[in-house]
Specification:
Elements lengths: L1 E2 L4 E5 L1 H9 L2 H15 L2 E2 L3 E5 L2 E8 L2 E10 L6 E11 L6 H16 L1
Parallel strand pairs: 2-7
Antiparallel strand pairs: 1-3, 4-5, 5-6, 6-7
């Protein structure tokens, strides 16, 4: 596994927090574990680049697939933020374009504020 060089913190926007609150505790625990791995500098299959600076945290539970989209904010002086935009339950092999576009829109809104 590769390691990142700058301290990292995962932060969720309201949309991602709302999704997170709706999923079951077992899946939440899996996401927390993935967040911790990334924050400690590990990089693996649980955190995948999709396109144009949009990434996804990936979890699976009982034949269901869960995703939280994210992007990097390296404008912070002391740490890099990975900002979770929103989540969804994946139902097909291909990630829906509308979900990627929503992540891009939420990223733009984040930087506008």
């Amino acid at each position: 596994m590769q390691k990142f060089s700058k301290p990292i913190k995962v932060q969720l926007l309201d949309e991602a927090t709302n999704y997170f609150d709706e999923i079951n505790d077992r899946v939440k625990a899996k996401f927390f574990k993935s967040f911790e791995k990334v924050e400690t500098g590990l990089k693996g299959d649980w955190f995948k680049h999709l396109e144009d600076g949009i990434w996804e945290f990936k979890e699976r539970d009982s034949q269901k697939f869960y995703r939280i989209f994210a992007f990097w904010d390296s404008t912070q002086e002391k740490q890099t933020l990975i900002v979770g935009t929103h989540g969804y339950n994946k139902k097909s092999n291909k990630t829906p374009r509308k979900e990627i576009n929503m992540a891009k829109q939420l990223r733009a809104k984040y930087y506008d504020n």
